[in-house]
Input
Amino acid sequence: MLIIGLDPGLACTGWGIVSKSGSRLSHIANGQVRTDAASSLAERLVTLDRELTDVILAHRPDFGAVEEVFVNTNAQSTLKLGQARGVCLLAIARAGLPVSEYATSLVKKALVGTGRAEKTQVQAMLKVLLPGVKLAGADAADALAVAITHANMLGSHR
Output
């Protein structure tokens, strides 16, 4: 089964796809969707939707998982992030896939063992779990971590 994980962001949304066969995980692909800050919000959301849809159609995952992200320092940034998250949820749901959401702290705990892990610790664990993986960037790494978290959650429910 294939699982796509998404780490939403308006400037950059990370995506990562893993395959789960029994208890074995394999890296399929990862990348980042960047939007042009000079474009309107609507145009940026269209770009995000189009590129995520292309990734989903190219890889045909069975499940989708999106990181829950909360930013409280700047209300405007939080609203834009929420809109990008909405596009992520929509792209997965429109493809007919079940979609799950995971808190950042749960993703970190699932991979590293502590909900307060640093990004470098998460990336180091990704290289252990997915040997030879070449990460497209920090957001792609976070997205792979979300996909792995979902793969582990599926295992605990079956």
In short: Residues 75-94 form the longest helix (20 residues). The longest strand covers residues 24-34. The chain has a mean pLDDT of 94. The chain is about 50% helix and 25% strand.
